[in-house]
Specification:
The chain is 38% helix and 10% strand. The chain has 702 residues and is of the alpha/beta class. The strands form three sheets. Strands 7-8-9-10-11-12-13-14 form an eight-stranded parallel β-barrel. The protein has a six-stranded mixed β-sheet with strand order 2-1-3-5-4-6. The longest helix has 33 residues, at 642-674. The radius of gyration is 26 Å and the shape is globular. It binds 4-O-methyl-beta-D-glucopyranuronic acid. GO terms for molecular function: hydrolase activity.
């Protein structure tokens, strides 16, 4: 009897405890029996014919998902005949009844004769349609009168992993790499498949498995076998593998004397290497390259330019269906220059010189994944070169896996910015999706936030950033709110009040973080090296543009980087319409103010406060808002799994403490320049600047 009780208890416990591993693909039994029955009536069988691996995956995912949600076994049959009440999967090139065409990976879900049809022009389209149908159920939408056509707006939707051979992840905060290189190719961790499922469910169709600071090893036969083993697992989920390239590989791996991209031997080496890659990975996606950036070698080492390097690789890929994504993240150590301008200066003159298989991959902003950046001036300035948007999901500058920052609003803010490249409405999104300049190929990349932690992303809420990236790469017109809402319902709870509370909290989280770390557009003042915590006082570093005083320029007059004509004139890289918005302190939106202006502490702002008072107010209200976040989270306790609840609550408590750390560090440090009191009703920090400074050393273990 006692044993039975324990067994029962264990069962109940394991049925409820949730370690976050299943992400948004939980498929727990729907609680409402009536709703369950309605769904079950429409899902009595799944019909699919043929043995295409992706279609088999699609049917299997649908079966597993439905069985979990409605609690009934659902057979997969090959031919529906005249049966009704089921779901029919098919590849179909027939035009849709509503006239909307499907592109290669698009899908259409419709209801006819009491069946649900999921059609795609390709097998991958069917797979995406399956996940879309499951999402309908998970978010408790009706499924009997569906007429959904959806096409991805961007073609290459990729995760970029900054994962190293030794299992570490550059800027990774969720454990070590998912890829166990030492076990591959023989042993396949079951997690590889779950990784592919998660990606396919949000429309991601490619993954760059190694760090852009690339090891030459990935160009060896031994490693290609390992990569091929991963590719085999990912293939049935419609996911292709890509590799980051170490540019001098022809020398280090190939034993050549040079890696000069115009050298015939080097070109032949790459052509052979590509041939070898395709012999083991027939659907290999292509290369990602970081060159002549932060010490990584590149074509400039041989007096050549980025186009020479990229075009050489593109030519090697010419016989195959692969592309080159060449990164524009470059900047030189010039004390008089402005790092903001570097990428534009190097790449803009090369527009029109790239091979048609080359895409240039541009970070969302000109500096480096700060909590807020103006859109990168290259967007809109390269009409003849497809530009890939690079977002960072891992929270390098956004509080690692400790601070809650839902990034969709950040992504959307960039995507919706107007470049005015072809007049009003020339948004960054339209540049990226190709519609503005007629790009033939298009892409969006997200630097992954995944790792070996059981819940994949360290902070449970970080899963939402992975999810949001995939959804937006598919359709950038989705709102941050819709995406948050979906994710919460699929991952945390369907209880309407809790869904609303959590969605709200997520939507405000980025602004809260910006307030207590980088208000009014101040940027790059975080802890040196690790990029965690505040260190605005940093004025010694190997390069001038790694010093934080370089960015904030605080002095007795004011604070901020003058990037107008009286300063670095980085503004001149934008169209006149954009310049106009940002060029005066009066017109520049406050969130971007210190990005473009050196503003006097005493300057009266639109808010009615002086700059100093506004600056301090933001730090204080930002830090206070974390308390609000904690209170909001406390309210959803009854609706959320206890393990997840505690995990998030614990991280919020750390965040709260660290928000005050940021606040104290920044107001005390900048007060030395402003020489003004902390405005009422705020109380001056209880500690001294010296005390706060010591905290950074502790965190950085210096
Ligand atoms: O954000 C910075 C990081 C580097 C990174 C680099 C890049 C992979 O601090 O760690 O290197 O950007 O994007 O290349």
């Amino acid at each position: 009897m006692k044993k039975l009780l324990i067994a029962l208890l264990l069962l109940t416990y394991s049925a409820h405890a949730d370690d976050g591993y299943r992400l948004w693909l939980k498929y727990d039994l729907i609680k409402d029996a009536a709703r369950r029955d309605t769904y079950a009536r429409s899902a009595q069988f799944i019909a699919v014919s043929g043995n295409n691996p992706i279609l088999t995956t699609a049917a299997g995912e649908l079966q597993a998902g439905l069985q979990g949600l409605v609690g009934k076994a659902i057979p997969i049959i090959t031919n529906a005949g005249n049966r009704t009440g089921g779901i029919i999967l098919s590849v179909s090139t027939a035009p849709n009844a509503d006239g909307q065409a499907l592109n290669n990976e698009g899908y259409r879900i419709s209801n006819r004769q009491n069946n649900i049809f999921i059609a795609g022009k390709t097998e991958a389209g069917v797979l995406y349609g399956v996940f879309a149908l499951l999402r309908q159920l998970q978010t408790q939408q009706p499924i009997t009168s569906l007429n959904l056509t959806s096409n991805p707006k961007v073609q290459y939707r990729l995760l970029n992993h900054w994962d190293n051979v030794n299992g570490t992840i550059e800027r990774g905060y969720a454990g070590s790499s998912l890829w166990k290189w030492y076990e591959l190719p023989e042993r396949l961790d079951p997690r590889y498949r779950d990784y592919a499922r998660a990606n396919a469910s949000i429309g991601i169709n490619g993954t760059v498995v190694n760090n852009v600071n690339a090891s030459p090893r990935f160009m060896t036969g031994e490693y290609l076998q390992k990569v091929a083993a991963l590719a085999n697992v990912f293939r049935p989920y419609g996911i292709r593998v890509y590799l980051s390239v170490y540019f001098p590989a022809p020398r280090t791996v190939g034993g050549l004397k040079t890696a000069d991209p115009l050298d015939p031997e080097v070109r032949a080496w790459w052509a052979n290497k590509v041939k070898e890659i395709y012999s083991v990975i027939p659907d290999f996606g292509g290369f990602l390259v970081k060159a002549n950036s932060e010490g990584e070698p590149g074509p400039q080492d041989y007096g050549r330019n980025h186009a020479d390097g990229a075009n050489m690789l593109a030519e090697a890929l010419a016989p195959y269906d692969g592309v080159v994504m060449w990164r524009s993240f470059v900047y030189k150590a010039d004390p008089k220059g402005d790092r903001f301008k570097a990428a534009y200066e190097e790449f803009k003159p090369l527009d029109g010189q790239f091979n048609k298989k080359v895409l240039v991959q541009v970070k969302n902003g000109p500096i480096d994944f700060q909590v807020r950046e103006p859109f990168h001036p290259l967007f809109g300035a390269m009409p003849q070169t497809p530009l890939v948007m690079e977002f960072q999901l891992t929270q390098e500058y956004l509080g690692f896996a400790t601070h809650m920052v839902y990034e969709a609003p950040l992504f959307k803010e960039t995507l919706e910015s107007d470049t005015y490249a072809n007049g009003k409405g020339s948004t960054v999104a339209k540049v990226v999706d190709g519609s503005l300049h007629g790009y033939q190929i298009t892409g969006m990349a997200g630097v992954a936030n995944t790792g070996s932690d059981r819940n994949w992303t360290g902070h449970t809420m970080g899963q939402a950033n992975w999810y949001a990236f995939g959804r937006l790469a598919w359709d950038h017109t989705l709102s941050s709110e819709v995406i948050a809402n979906e994710w919460v319902q699929m991952t945390l709870t369907n209880e309407p009040k809790a869904v609303k509370t959590i969605t709200d909290l997520m939507l405000r989280s980025r602004e809260v973080y910006a307030s207590y770390t980088n208000p009014l557009g101040v940027h790059h003042i975080m802890g040196y090296g690790i990029h965690y915590g505040p260190e605005p006082w940093l004025d010694k570093a190997p390069r001038p543009d790694w010093r934080h005083t370089y960015y904030h320029r605080a002095d007795s007059v004011g604070i901020g980087f003058d990037r107008t004509a009286t300063g670095s004139n980085a503004l001149s890289q934008y169209t006149p319409e954009v310049q106009k918005q940002w060029s005066t302190m009066e017109t520049c939106p406050l969130p971007y103010l210190l990005w473009f202006h050196h503003v006097p502490w005493t300057k009266q702002l639109r808010t009615g406060r002086t700059l100093w008072d506004e600056f301090v107010t933001r730090y204080y209200t930002g830090a206070d808002s974390v308390r609000w976040m904690q209170q909001q989270w406390a309210q959803v306790k009854p609706a959320v799994d206890p393990e997840i609840f505690e995990d998030v609550a614990g991280r919020l408590a750390v965040q709260q403490k660290e928000a005050i750390w940021w606040r104290d560090a920044c107001v005390l440090y900048f007060q030395q320049f402003a020489r003004r009191p902390i405005p009422a009703p705020f109380k001056k920090p209880e500690r001294t600047l010296e005390e706060v400074k010591r905290l950074v050393d502790i965190y950085q273990m210096r």
